[in-house]
TrEMBL record:
<keyword id="KW-0812">Transmembrane</keyword>
<feature type="transmembrane region" description="Helical">
    <location>
        <begin position="364"/>
        <end position="382"/>
    </location>
</feature>
<keyword id="KW-0472">Membrane</keyword>
<feature type="transmembrane region" description="Helical">
    <location>
        <begin position="394"/>
        <end position="413"/>
    </location>
</feature>
<keyword id="KW-0406">Ion transport</keyword>
<comment type="function">
    <text>Na(+)/H(+) antiporter that extrudes sodium in exchange for external protons.</text>
</comment>
<keyword id="KW-0813">Transport</keyword>
<dbReference type="InterPro" id="IPR023171">
    <property type="entry name" value="Na/H_antiporter_dom_sf"/>
</dbReference>
<keyword id="KW-0739">Sodium transport</keyword>
<protein>
    <recommendedName>
        <fullName>Na(+)/H(+) antiporter NhaA</fullName>
    </recommendedName>
</protein>
<feature type="transmembrane region" description="Helical">
    <location>
        <begin position="170"/>
        <end position="190"/>
    </location>
</feature>
<keyword id="KW-1003">Cell membrane</keyword>
<feature type="transmembrane region" description="Helical">
    <location>
        <begin position="196"/>
        <end position="213"/>
    </location>
</feature>
<dbReference type="InterPro" id="IPR004670">
    <property type="entry name" value="NhaA"/>
</dbReference>
<feature type="transmembrane region" description="Helical">
    <location>
        <begin position="109"/>
        <end position="129"/>
    </location>
</feature>
<feature type="transmembrane region" description="Helical">
    <location>
        <begin position="29"/>
        <end position="47"/>
    </location>
</feature>
<feature type="transmembrane region" description="Helical">
    <location>
        <begin position="220"/>
        <end position="252"/>
    </location>
</feature>
């Protein structure tokens, strides 16, 4: 082979290189890895001599006071960047309800019910443990109810390579419904006062955004200002601004139409193949959520000063922390498995034939990885940088770590067994 032909063999066209980068960025493992890296960095900085610098950056305020938008960097990450994450969640939710797994009620019933059980039981655990602590403490009842999609799916991708694909589908469906419930909880229970004039005003750019995407407009210079206006008005209304991201996601059409579609290639006969705008936007903005929005939020939300052994003991003996850990590690799997078991006894609701109860047990443990939304609810319940919020962070981190380890061990063992059975067959 000549030396002149060798470079050409390994040279990638720009579009092929970009396709590879996008594929890597959408990787479950990469998303979980970035979250873990951001979390560890925050914990190290918050407990090192660099803690004053970290806190100064996190608490630095900037913005437009007249629009109720003078926020700290940490608040911009929670209210602003997480809106991007929830925009992608809104897109995925609509896709699932219109054309995906949630379209068939019989197929979706079990994971939907499991998600509901996985919300109710952890909340009951938290309330039972903190029943005598007063109303202010009980505001955190929703903290252990959320499942972090990125972390849970990343762990499953690492340890469950030989497990049935239906297990990932079940976990994804459960986590998506879990997010929908979490969004509803945030909008309903953690919105103290609502300014209806601002909320009504938000309907105008929201309608403009909906009209634009329904007509196939994808120009960022049209859609982005409308989306930012919706976000700003929702934030000013008192409703948590991440709800704006979900509303915007719901406006995007799922099925390709004559006006709103994106060509993705050709079929076997050479005819063009089209996607709806929801899949197109989820593809583009999912990368932003994975690489930027969620890791940056985690970096500023997870940094808690533990205070050495004494501080850790103090946090771990706080009923708030105990309630969160118990809710995530025990409440989640109990709620998911109990609900699934009871409903699967009904003739019309059957589990996928490839799923086994040990697989579901490991998956339900992974669902106890709360993290992103749990940290957000903790801030909303107790206020950022409060002692209670610091204990929330420790509880969420410890509970999520235990859930990840326990679920990972169970599923890794199941995966090894499945691999051995496949080899023997």
């Amino acid at each position: 082979m000549s030396s002149s032909s060798s470079p050409a063999r390994f040279r990638l066209a720009p579009h092929e290189l970009w396709r590879g980068i996008r594929s890597t960025a959408r990787s479950d493992v990469l998303g979980g890895g970035l979250l873990l890296t951001a979390t560890l960095a925050a914990l190290i900085l918050a407990n090192s001599p660099a803690a004053p610098w970290y806190e100064a950056v996190r608490d630095f305020r900037f913005g437009i006071p007249e629009w109720h938008l003078e926020l700290s960097v940490g608040a911009w990450a929670a209210d602003g960047l997480l809106a991007v994450f929830f925009f992608v969640v809104g897109l995925e939710l609509k896709e699932e309800f219109v054309a995906g797994r949630l379209r068939d009620p019989r197929r979706a019933a079990l994971p939907i019910a499991a998600a509901v059980g996985g919300v109710i039981v952890p909340a009951l655990f938290f309330v039972a443990i903190n029943a005598s602590s007063g109303a202010e403490v009980l505001r955190g009842w929703a903290i252990p109810t959320a499942t972090d999609i990125a972390f849970a799916i990343a762990v499953l991708a690492v340890v469950g390579r030989f497990l049935p694909p239906a297990l990932r589908v079940f976990l994804l469906t459960l986590a998506i419904i879990d997010d929908l419930i979490a969004i509803t909880i945030i909008a309903t229970f953690y919105t103290e006062t609502i300014s209806f004039p601002w909320l009504i005003l938000a309907l105008l750019p929201l309608a403009g955004f909906a009209l634009a995407v329904q007509n196939g407009i994808r120009s960022w210079w049209i859609l982005l200002p409308l989306a930012l206006a919706v976000w700003a008005f929702v934030h000013a209304s008192g409703v948590h601004a991440t709800v704006a991201g979900v509303l915007l996601g719901f406006m995007v059409p799922v099925r390709p139409t004559e006006r709103a579609r994106v060509r993705t290639g050709t079929d076997a006969d050479g005819a063009p193949v089209y996607d709806g705008l929801a899949a197109h936007f989820a593809d583009r903005w999912g990368i932003v959520a994975t690489l930027v929005a969620v890791p940056v939020f985690a970096f500023f939300a997870a940094g808690v000063e533990i205070g050495g052994a004494e501080g850790l003991v103090s946090a771990l003996t706080d009923p708030i922390t105990i309630g969160i850990i118990a809710g995530l590690v025990l409440g989640k799997p109990v709620g998911i498995l109990l609900t699934t078991f009871l409903l699967s006894r009904m003739p019309a609701l059957r589990l996928d034939e490839s799923l086994r109860w040990p697989d579901l047990a490991g998956m339900s443990l992974l669902a106890g990885i709360g993290f992103t939304v749990s940290l957000l609810v903790g801030e909303l319940a107790y206020g950022s940088s409060s002692v209670a919020d610091d204990h929330v962070k420790i509880g969420v981190l410890v509970g999520s770590l235990l859930a990840a380890v326990l679920g990972g061990l169970v599923l890794a063992a199941r995966s090894r067994r499945a691999r051995g059975a496949a080899s023997a067959g």
